[in-house]
Design a protein that fits this description.
mainly alpha, 9 helices, globular
Amino acid sequence: MTATQTSAIAPVRSPWAQLARIEIRRYLGRPAFLLGLALTYASLLPYLDGDKATDELAMIAPAALVGMVGISVSAHRVWASDRCAEAAGPTPVGQASRTVGHLVACLVPALAGLGFVLVTLVRAQSVSTPRGGYAEMMSDGWVAAVWLALGAVSCLGGPVLGVAVARRTKRAAAPVLATVGLVLAVIVFQGLFEPLRRVRVLLP
């Protein structure tokens, strides 16, 4: 069989799959993501002390440092990709394929958050110190589900929101405003401040 025949029958990857591989590598190389990832896992260092209770507050680190930072990381990544596409001129790869590639790359921070949650769950099960907060009163399955939502889903949702923001506008301040708005919404819906609890009831 000749080389020509071999290349002719080789499987052709779809454009979005090729772009996804490229965007995954780019996401892994983003300094903001790497710094947030390092700080997130560094927050586990106090838990080396077996007497420290594990609670839901541990999930703030991945949600903030990977998830919320991911809004800006994804938005700027989309804009950079669009600039490259515009500079290259007409290409067979459309915006829809590029968007799918960006969304697939959002699995990178999601897996980082999932790893953090799994490490925290293993630690909580391996020490004799009771869990802190509401986790002390709930079942293991309930705690795992809540921690996955707080620490892993947030690491996926932030970057996905960043892609959506970048597709709606090219304003440089948009990711920052989206992050601030998300923080304010979280504060309101947590019900920590009594005057804001009525707002939480009125909003859908």
